[in-house]
Amino acid sequence: MSKFWSPIVSRLTPYTPGEQPKIANLVKLNTNESPYGPSPRALEAIAREVGDSLRLYPNPDAEPLKLAIAARHAADGITAREVFVGNGSDEVLAHAFHALLQHGKPILFPDITYSFYPTYSGLYQVEYRAVPLAADFTIRADDYLGHGEAIGGIIFPNPNAPTGCLMGLAEIERILQGNPERVVVVDEAYIDFGGETAIPLVQRYPNLLVVQTFSKSRALAGMRVGFAIGHADLIAALERVKNSFNSYPLDRPAIAGATAAIEDEEYFRKTCGMVVASREKLVASLTQLGFEVLPSAANFVFARHAQHDAAKLAASLRGDGIIVRHFTSARINQFLRITIGTDEACGTLVESLKKHLA
Ligand SMILES: *Cc1c(COP(=O)(O)O)cnc(C)c1O
Questions:
Q1: Which of 52, 172, 199, 353 is a good FRET partner for 158, with 20 to 30 A between their CA atoms?
Q2: E strand segments, 95-253
Q3: 286 CA distance to ligand 1 centroid (A)?
Q4: What's the confidence (pLDDT) of residue 20?
């Protein structure tokens, strides 16, 4: 604390990201990064942008990237006017809080969810109500209905984080229909690992904003690119906030790299398929070791063992050079969140767990 701080600063609760330790040969299964590199075409495009052109500002609207994202979703009627891009989807989400969820009324999100939502609520002074997940850790659509104009909006990830549980499109549609006067933000950071995107609903629901990221399924976490798709009026609000904050959130290499990445559908499908196959194998192995594993549609699993304390297991794994994520909040403090690595990395994890469970 310092007398120089603006008053709000001391009241903030900043987000705590998973650690990025600088230890060699670590099996790093704690922050849901891709175990595979970005598309080779993305790497070439990035390399081409690293040169003299860096003295010039990038395209402020990241137009080539918006066009590429729109082209991929053209069948759902998406044009560049329905696309917003930002410096990681975290930034896109922040602008959504600022531009679309700040109405002086509490917003709703699950009690167990992405911990950036309470952080942004604090930053933008948006009140919120944390809606408890069902006993099986799924989000119940009914809990988000019948609030009328008493709420300021709704946000949740699908699949949810850190549970990995997926909500079907029919349920999402019920939430949209039940809240026609409020924006519903669906954070699809993990949708490419087995879920069905809500993007096809954008044409019919002007209150839907779908947010996605290049960090997970396109292996570009280090580049910081995220995007939102929604009705042009919602996108216009995000643009107004963005252009009041930072006109150039995406640098030249990021625009080029992300554009090439989204155009490389084949590499994307192949690597997502590999992650899903490894996930199914890991779920089988963990189940065999006595873990309860929540059904995951993400690139991680959320698992607990009835006889073994999660914090102790995480510490034991760490001793073997394997890091996973452990959360300390009450309902989930017996779970480990394990990112899907290569089959080799998952195998190392399973062998270490076998040793510590014995
Ligand atoms: C990883 C993640 C994001 C943010 O990703 P960026 O790297 O900022 O694009 C957003 N939402 C959820 C639920 C995530 O897990």
A1: 353
A2: 107-110, 128-131, 153-157, 184-187, 208-213, 226-230
A3: 25
A4: 82
| Residues ≥6 apart with Cβ < 8 Å to 226 | 85, 86, 87, 88, 89, 90, 91, 92, 93, 211, 212, 213, 214, 215
Paired tokens of 97 = 């809080």
Asked if residue 113 has its Cβ within 6 Å of ligand 1, the reply is no
Question: CA 195 to CA 72: how far, in whole Å?
Answer: 17
Q: Are 155 and 198 in contact (CB under 8 A)?
A: no
Closest CA to 114 of 102, 96, 87: 96
For the chain, which domains are there?
7-37+266-357 (3.90.1150.10), 40-264 (3.40.640.10)
Give the number of C-alpha atoms closer than 13 A to the C-alpha of residue 180, restricted to the C-beta side. Answer: 2
User: What is the rounded CA–CA span in Å between residue 303 and residue 296?
Assistant: 10
* Cα 190 to ligand 1 centroid, rounded to whole Å: 8
Q: What are the phi and psi torsion angles at 154 (to 5°)?
A: -140, 140
Give residue 25's pLDDT.
84
The answer, yes or no, to whether any atom of ligand 1 lies below 6 A from the CB of 213, is yes
Distance 52 CA to ligand 1 centre (A): 32
Q: Is the CB of 159 under 6 A from ligand 1?
A: no
Q: How far apart are CA 62 and CA 87, in angstroms?
A: 11
Q: Which DSSP category does 308 fall into? A: B
Pocket flag, ligand 1, residue 34 (CB < 6 Å): no
Which ligand 1 atom sits nearest the alpha carbon of residue 114? 13
* Run means of pLDDT, 10 residues per run, the chain, 358 residues: 93 86 87 96 98 96 98 98 98 98 98 96 97 98 96 98 98 98 98 98 98 98 98 98 97 98 98 98 98 98 97 96 94 97 97 95
Confidence at residue 274, expressed as pLDDT on a 0 to 100 scale: 98
Asked if residues 223 and 199 have their Cβ atoms less than 8 Å apart, the reply is no
Structure tokens at 160: 């949810």
> For residues 307 and 314, what is the distance between their CA atoms, to the nearest angstrom?
14
CA–CA separation, 99 and 95 (whole Å) = 6
